[in-house]
Fold this protein.
Amino acid sequence: MKVKSKIELEFKTPEDAKIIFKTLEVDNENFLNSKIESTTITYEIDDESLTTALATIDDLIACEILSEKITSINE
């Protein structure tokens, strides 16, 4: 079974989005397709297993939350 997911994260400013994008890109390279447009980061996950896709999504969200805390970006 093929599992496709799309997650969009929207920030207050393009600068905030850029900071988080750069912070997460190192960890996500070769695992997720990602792009940034203005204040929105879009991640596309294409996996063979629902369990793996959910684990990837969970990790992405946890890392994003931590990145916000570390970089002092407040929503």
In short: The radius of gyration is 12 Å.
